[in-house]
Write a structure and sequence with these properties.
Elements lengths: L4 H18 L3 H7 L4 H10 L18 H11 L6 H12 L2 H6 L2 H13 L23 E2 L8 E6 L11 E5 L9 E2 L5 H19 L1 H17 L1 E2 L2 E2 L4 H29 L5 H26 L9 H8 L10 H12 L4 H11 L9
Length: 358
């Protein structure tokens, strides 16, 4: 993927927004366990950040998915994972299927205000006991959260992503109009699988800058922190390890650029997206664990950037498809998965035969 002036300008604008509008408030939002989604999303909507690859007729910018990836990378400069995750739900998890397969009426009623930042969206895919086992033959339905019978009072106390509130959603005899069905009845599974390509690329790219920034902060800290008469960074193990991790980040970035180029060209990138998602989750654990070790006791403090990153990035190997799901998909596409395991892997990577503008 070759970055143009337009890509670089979008990156600059989003990063500037993160530094001015998000990072100064991260500590407060983390303590409160909540970020002001409507306020932040409205500001982002006015700047055109919430509909980068959505059609212009609905308020989007009409750009290809490479610009969404630049957006994801720039968002990674936020000093927490919860807020970018919430924004990603708005742009790349809760609205793609609506944009592609929703009726004109639904798009006008729900997609337009989502792109403008006038409403905050969420997504509910699986049940509590199912995890990554997304059920087949389901349908995607738009459910207004003020509908009678919805209970979302059970807020979950998460290990990380503290600033992004998450709740169990209970539906008790909830009724919505039939027109709220997105696309065809029973086609929700394949719509979701298609969306997973973008979601997994987005999630992986979102971690790149954050990991790089954490390494840079650790380099500066280990230059200043002395043990046994010399800076910590002068220990060969430390500077070799930091160099190795920086190299791994660049390798992940190259994989993501390749996958993005393939996706924009209209090719199936299930394999590359699964590899990138797997690598991002595991690499983030290596980076945060190593950096925290070099920060010593200071890194163990709850509100330090490195401790927050250690907690937040652990979700990357779970959410959006666990590492084990990614490995199953990769093995299936490599042709090395035992026969008895192929059925579930085929389900996890099944793609709909539809034409999609990227």
């Amino acid at each position: 993927m070759i970055l143009t002036h337009e890509h670089n300008e979008l990156y600059r604008q989003v990063k500037s927004f993160v530094e001015k509008e998000l990072n100064p408030h991260v500590a407060e939002w983390e303590r409160e366990g909540l970020w002001p989604a409507r306020e932040v999303l409205k500001k982002m909507g006015k700047l055109g950040f919430l509909g980068i690859s959505r059609p212009e007729v609905y308020g989007g910018l009409g750009l290809d998915y490479s610009y969404e990836m630049v957006f994801a990378q720039a968002l990674g400069n936020c000093n927490c994972g919860g807020v970018p995750m919430g924004i990603g739900v708005q742009t790349n998890m809760g609205t793609p299927a609506l944009s592609r397969f929703g009726s004109e009426e639904l798009k006008r009623e729900y997609l337009v205000p989502a792109i403008a930042g006038d409403v905050a969206v969420s997504i509910a895919v699986s049940e509590a006991g199912a995890g990554s086992d997304v059920h087949e033959n389901k349908s995607l339905i738009v459910v207004p959260m003020d509908a009678k019978g919805i209970d979302r009072k059970t807020k979950l106390d998460k290990l990380g992503m503290r600033s992004s509130d998450t709740a169990m959603v209970f539906l008790d005899n909830v009724r919505v109009p039939q027109r709220n069905l997105i696309g065809q009845e029973g086609a929700g599974f394949v719509y979701q699988m298609l969306q997973f390509q973008e979601e997994r690329l987005f999630v992986a790219m979102n971690g790149v800058d954050g990991m790089g920034n954490l390494i840079d902060e650790t380099i500066e800290y280990t230059r200043q922190r002395h043990t046994f008469g010399k800076p910590i960074i002068e220990n060969q193990y430390v500077h070799f390890r930091l160099a190795e991790l920086k190299t791994e980040i660049e390798a992940l970035k190259a994989l993501l650029f390749q996958a993005t180029e393939e996706y924009v060209a209209g090719r199936d990138v299930t394999l590359l997206a699964s590899m990138a998602k797997l690598k991002a989750g595991r690499l983030s654990r290596e980076v945060t664990d190593s950096c925290l070790q070099y920060w010593g006791g200071q890194g163990y403090m709850w509100e330090s950037n490195v401790a927050r990153a250690f907690r937040d990035t652990r979700l990357l190997s779970i959410g959006g498809g666990a590492d084990e799901i990614m490995l199953g998909v990769i093995c299936k596409l490599m042709g090395i998965l035992p026969n008895k395991k192929r059925k579930s892997a085929e389900k996890a990577q099944e793609m709909p035969k539809v034409a999609v503008k990227c």
